[in-house]
Amino acid sequence: MLDSDRIGEVVLDVKDLRTYFVTRWGVVKAVDGVSFQVRRGETLGVVGESGCGKSVTSLSIMRLVPSPPGHIVGGQVLLEGDDILELDDGEMEEIRGSRIGMVLQDPMTALNPVFDIEDQVGEALKIHKNMSGEGLKANVIEMLRKVRIPAPEVRIKDFPHQLSGGMRQRVVGAIGISCDPAVLIADEPTTSLDATIQAQYLRLLRELQEQTGVGIIFITHDFGIVAKMCDRVAVMYAGKIVEQGDVRQIFNKPAHPYTEALIQSVPKMEEKAERLYSIPGQPPALWALDQSCAFADRCRYAFDRCTAEYPDMFELEHGQLAACWLREKDKVATA
Questions:
Q1: Are 135 and 199 in contact (CB under 8 A)?
Q2: Residue 27 has what DSSP assignment?
């Protein structure tokens, strides 16, 4: 049952998280000093181009980075005060799926084709809540009913290939919330859905959040979804968070040139344009980064200091953060 007194408390605190991959080209700093917080009952959007480190961040939090070649080399991930990076594999298995859940991008690869829906939704309940028999079956049906699966009493015996894409994604969502986690990571869960089903799925996540108070990390490259779904947003580029703040602040007054460029890239139905805006250039190779701002080569505002040293993270008004030398003059004075 949702405890309204606890809404707003920090349930996940990621501090200076670093995940590197050792490759033939060099060390790829896929996640390089990422820090953010997620509060109970809020949704944090993590946005950026493909390859910026969004999914590796989520896999690092879940301790699912393939090793080798990947290694979590530093930082803390505090889940309700417990640093899960310090836990052994057995202790992490008890947390994964119970206190922190995940909805993957492709439900066809997330679901096992040889097990029916009852087995797959019920697995976490068996492991973490020791359920079995008719009690387990009743809870699986209730989970499917929560995610709006029609006739769940019948559908529990279906296999993934017998369900539509939208229904498969709902089943993955049911697995993610089955043990009432404090945090749910949704890694681009609407990518394979059409516009109508996408809207229904987003509304469903909102309803589940209102009922349970779960903190959601919503990973996407779609700023339209961020506007509908998220309370705060963290913008990633080249393995780092370059801007973070309230969604309205970010949309109304982006403080980092990369965020500004991403927002400009979103087509506007009310405006006629002969050519859609695109960000010039390509993201940098993560194994060849130097001390300069990684976005400098693509930035229309870049000046000498940008190519000489990476900018500090400046705190602006209302808690907005931006790693850009242009914002140095705008930073909030601290005692």
A1: no
A2: E
Contacts of 194 (CB under 8 A, 6+ apart): 166
Domain borders along the chain are 4-99+182-270, 107-178
Rounded to the nearest 10 degrees, the angle between the axes of helix 165-177 and helix 133-146 is 120
Q: Which residue has the tokens 């060390």?
A: 27
User: For residues 14 and 74, what is the distance between their CA atoms, to the nearest angstrom?
Assistant: 11
Contacts of 4 (CB under 8 A, 6+ apart): none
Residue 88, judged by CB atoms within 10 A of its CB (0-12, 13-18, 19+), counts as exposed
What DSSP character marks residue 309? S
181-233 residue pLDDT tens: 999 999 888 776 777 778 888 888 888 898 889 999 999 888 888 888 899 99
Residue type (1 letter), 186: A
Which of 129-133, 159-163, 187-191 has the weakest average pLDDT?
187-191
Residue 173 is predicted with a pLDDT of 85
Global confidence as pTM: 0.89
Q: Which two tokens stand for residue 152?
A: 């769940």
Q: Which CATH number fits domain 4-99+182-270: 3.30.110.10, 3.40.50.300, 3.30.300.30, 3.30.70.2860?
A: 3.40.50.300
Q: What is the C-alpha to C-alpha distance for residues 235 and 265, in angstroms, rounded to an integer?
A: 14
